[in-house]
Amino acid sequence: MKNLNPILIIVLLIILGIFLFSRKDSILTKEVEKIDVIDDKEQIVSAVELLNEEGNVTVSVESLNEANTNFRITLRTHFVELNYDLVKLSSLFNIYGNEYIPISWDGDPVGGHHRTGVLKFDSEEIKNPTLLLIRGIDGIDRKFDLSTFNE
Asked: Where are the transmembrane segments (predicted)?
C-alpha cells in the first residue's frame, strides 16, 4: 500500500507534463496591448502586438497601416545569430490564398541578437491580407493572423 502513493504521484506528474507540453503549440501567438510612435510620420494603427515565442527567437509583429501591408517586425534572442533575410523569408496571404512577397526591409541589418525594422508589401497590389508568414526563423515557420489587427 505504501508503494501505491509514489507510483500514483509519478503517473499524475507524467499526465500533467503531457498536458502542459501538448498545450504549448496552441498558445504560441499572444496579443499584447501596445501603442508606440515609429517616427514623426508613422504610428502603429493597432494597439495589438502579435508575439510568437517558439524556439529560441521571439518574433513580434505590429501593423503600421490600416491595409495591413506594412509591419514593424522585432526579432529577439540570446541564443542564435539573427542571420535572416526577412524579405526572402516572408509572405503575405490574402483571403483568396494568393501569396505576395515583400518589397522592402527598412531596419537593422542581418546579424546580432536583436533586430527591428519595417517590412513593406505593395499596398496597391494586396487586398484583404489575412496571414503573415515568416519562414525558418530558428527552423520554425511563424504564422500571424492579421484579422486580430482589424478587431
From this structure: 6-22
Task: Output the pTM of the full model.
Answer: 0.71
Amino acid present at 137: I
Query: In the CATH hierarchy, which top-level class contains the domain 30-150?
Result: mainly beta
Quick count: other Cβ atoms within 10 Å of Cβ 65?
17
**Among 108, 57, 61, which Cα is nearest to 81's?**
57
Taking the C-alpha atoms of residue 71 and residue 94, their distance in angstroms, rounded to an integer, is 15
Locate the domains of the chain by residue range. 30-150
Question: Are 52 and 24 spatial neighbours (Cβ–Cβ below 8 Å)?
Answer: no
Could you read off the pLDDT of 2-55 as tens digits, one per residue? 556 777 777 777 776 665 554 444 334 554 444 444 444 445 555 689 999 999
C-alpha cell at 80: 542564435
